[in-house]
Amino acid sequence: MSSQSHRKMSGIRPNKPRTDEIELTELFSSQMSQLCLNEDYSDVCFIVENQRLPAHRVMLAARSEYFRALLYGGLSESTQTEIHLKVPVEAFKSLLRYIYSGHMSLAQMDEDNILDTLGLANQYGLSELELSISDYLRQYLALGNVCAILDAARLYNLEKLTKVCLTFMDRNAADILQHDSFKSLSKESLEEVLRRDSFFAPEVQIFIAVWDWCKHNPNVDIKVSIRITISNYIFNILFVSLQSVVSFVRLPLMNLEDLLHVVRPSGILNPDKLLDAIEEQNTSKYLPYRAALWPEENVATAKFVSRTIMGECRAELLNGDVTSYDMEKGYTRHCISDTNETGIVVELGTICIINHIKILLWDRDNRAYSYFIEVSPNQTQWDRVIDYSKYHCRSWQFLYFPARPVRYIKLVGTYNTVNRLFHVVALEAMYTTNLPKVINDIVAPTANVATIEMSAVVVDGVSRTRNCLINGNYTDYDWDSGYTCHQLDSGEILVRLGQPYIIGSMRLLLWDCDDRTYSFYIETSVNQKDWVMVVDKRNEHARSWQNFSFNPLPVVFIRIIGTRNTANEIFHCVHLECPSQDPNFLLAEKEKQKLMEEKAKEQLRIVNDNQASTSAGSRASTPRRSVNNLRAIAPANVQLREVEDNILVQLGNVAGGQHNV
After folding, report:
1. Nearest-CA neighbor of 185 among 208, 154, 223?
2. Which of 50, 302, 594, 660 has its CA 20 to 30 A from that of 204?
3. pLDDT of residue 17
4. Residue 440 CB burial class (10 angstroms; 0-12, 13-18, ≥19)
5. How far, CA to CA in Å, does 356 sit from each of 424, 430, 448, 489?
6. 35 pLDDT exceeds 70?
7. What distance in Å separates the CA atoms of residue 46 and residue 53, rounded to the nearest whole number?
8. Which whole-number Å values give the CA distances from 46 to 34, 99, 429, in the listed order?
9. 56 in Cβ contact with 39 (< 8 Å)
10. DSSP 8-state class, residue 56
11. CA–CA dist 648, 629 (Å, integer)
12. Beta partners for residue 400, in sequence order
């Protein structure tokens, strides 16, 4: 009977939508929250700031590992009905309400209460609540609360919140320095802020703010008192030590007037520090510049008041137009000279931290350019960050280098395959976190760079569609189209990449609509003069997909030359990738590389062990000789006595304890 009823119920199809799940979570939460701070069924009471807060052990233990250990873990609190806690009472009440209901209205709480609750969430292991409060605070950062939030974020190791706070302070450095809350920043947080190259404000303003912070926190900063005696007179001199926050102020960035009329009268720095700063200004090649940081945003635009200050047709370079250019207009240029004294110079609106530059070289024909790029913070000291003067480049250039403060960018063309002019259509400069691997200024890509989007072009080879070898379509091909070819013994397929890349693999799809096979070889070059053979399949019968790996090397030109076709006298290629994008091939190559590295490490370990065993006896017998040899090469700032002691201890250990140190 019951089974028949069950079958009958399962066949019911009511007119209104079917509901398989009962969802009464909101009602449950509301009813459970009524127990919060309620004496009914309470079996424990917390005493916080002289207030009695009733609670229920099982509820707390179910929601928090901390309370589970406290109330049921065998501690003394397990048997106590009253437990005293030294925590902020309002924050603890908010926490209890969250534990009972799963709900917390942050908009109804003041900032101090929110930060206190964040601390309790961290202390009691309520990670979901901690993360939610952290996300809330990230949305409501302001000048008045960012310092307190940064202190809390660092205290509770909230990395994302810390990063957002520091970025906010970078963007509003001048205003933060003048805000009263800056004086309440902890010493550790203040030091972290001052260490940042991106905390960008006039250094004299930073010094004044730090000086005010020191006066507001007299017992926090570390000072050193030096007592000296001269002619029976005793002098007590108070200097700020190297551990002081003042040491993070970059004195060489201040002008002489600020050093003499602002820093010197403060009396908190040894006068020698001022002299050192002045000397560094005059002699140092690299000053510790601060600079603005705008991640993933092009700072070479009118928005940032950037401009081109050298070159012909200067207004064209930064106008953002990368489509409306031709032989007559739409580019900035300079004449190429043998001395490289001319160039195109861009001045950013302010000094910025950048590590990525994109330039569009004029590309309405197949010409190529060679060039180099230098950057400078002051237009006096220039650093060459990109040197492609030996490579043929075309169209868009994607350039990366170590992050540095930059105000001026200089482009110098050294070669044009057509004439003696260097043409640049557009330039972008930014800081990016999406950095590829770079070897000697040259990108070592993981994605395929033999594509139209990456400025590659097919220079030689016959096809019905231009650049079909690199257009990414390797499925739509047949007897008449979809491939690039050349006549055996009289031609080649030549691909030019947009710029030099470090390449160590390729993948090639040979035309395979029947069972024919091919023989071929592949060469690479950076200048179309000196060629290196990286693939040799002249004695093999290859068909369809082909993967190749070889020692990585700089590549601009890829030359594919067919030597045999079992069907006719034409060599056909459908698709080219470099590096290869075949996941199975890449996985096999990764495993191969891992084995090679492990083998190399093992060989190195064996060599080191052999050297250690052969030299241990002689070292142990003549330890003092090693120390004497070290005296000749030890840096001046190394305490020789400490070096001697360390070496004697180590030599004694090597000798198996035979030497008594």
Report:
1. 154
2. 302
3. 61
4. exposed
5. 17, 5, 19, 44
6. yes
7. 5
8. 18, 15, 58
9. no
10. -
11. 13
12. 356
Q: What is the average pLDDT value for the chain, to the nearest integer?
A: 86
Whether residue 241 contacts residue 212, with contact meaning beta carbons closer than 8 Å, is answered with no
Q: What is the pTM of this model?
A: 0.77
List the structure tokens of 472: 């990414």
Q: Two tokens at 636? A: 């001046």
Q: What's the rounded Cα separation, in Å, for the pair 293 and 433?
A: 12
Average pLDDT estimate for 364-382: 94
Cα atoms found within 13 Å of the Cα of residue 78, Cβ hemisphere only: 8
Helix (H) / strand (E) containing 423: strand 421-430
DSSP symbols for 511-570: --SSS--EEEEEEEESSSSS-EEEEEEEEEEE-SEEEEEEEEEEEEEEEEEEEEESSSSE
Distance, CA of 55 to CA of 61 (rounded, Å):
11
CA pair distance 316, 427, nearest whole angstrom = 10
3-state SS of 72-118? Answer: HCCCHHHHCCEEEECCCHHHHHHHHHHHHHCCCCHHHCCHHHHHHHH
Contact 269, 239 (CB under 8 A): yes
Rounded to 10 degrees, the C-alpha dihedral 494/500/501/506 comes to 10
Decide if 194 contacts 187 (C-beta within 8 A).
Answer: no
Pairing, β 307-310 against β 223-230? unpaired
Q: In which residue are the tokens 């072009």 written? A: 457
- What whole-number distance in Å separates Cα of residue 639 and Cα of residue 214? 33
Contacts of 322 (CB under 8 A, 6+ apart): 360, 425, 426
Cβ atoms 449, 493 nearer than 8 A = no
For residue 349, give the amino acid letter: G
Tokens 């969250």 locate to 98
Measured torsion, CA atoms of residues 105, 111, 112, 118, in degrees rounded to the nearest 10: 60
Query: Helices 146-155 & 127-139, crossing angle to 10 degrees?
Result: 150
* Calpha distance 331→399 (Å, rounded): 19
Specify whether the CB–CB gap between 626 and 590 falls below 8 A.
Answer: no
Q: Determine phi and psi for 186, rounding to 5 degrees.
A: -65, 155
- Rounded to the nearest 5 percent, the helix, strand and coil shares of the chain are 35, 30, 35
Token duo for residue 183: 């004086």
Element (H, E) at 29: helix 25-33
Phi/psi at 478 (nearest 5 deg)?
-150, -155
Q: What is the DSSP letter of 260?
A: I
Paired tokens of 292: 């603005």
What does the chain come to in residues? 661
Single-letter amino acid, residue 393: C
> Cα 501 vs. chain centroid, distance in angstroms?
21
- Which two structure tokens, joined as six digits, stand for 127? 């990670």
pLDDT digits (tens, 9 = 90+) for 253-284: 999 999 999 999 988 888 888 999 999 988 88
Closest CA to 426 of 300, 281, 547, 306: 300
Residue with tokens 């006298």: 569
* Encoded tokens for 221: 């900063």
3-class SS at 319?
coil
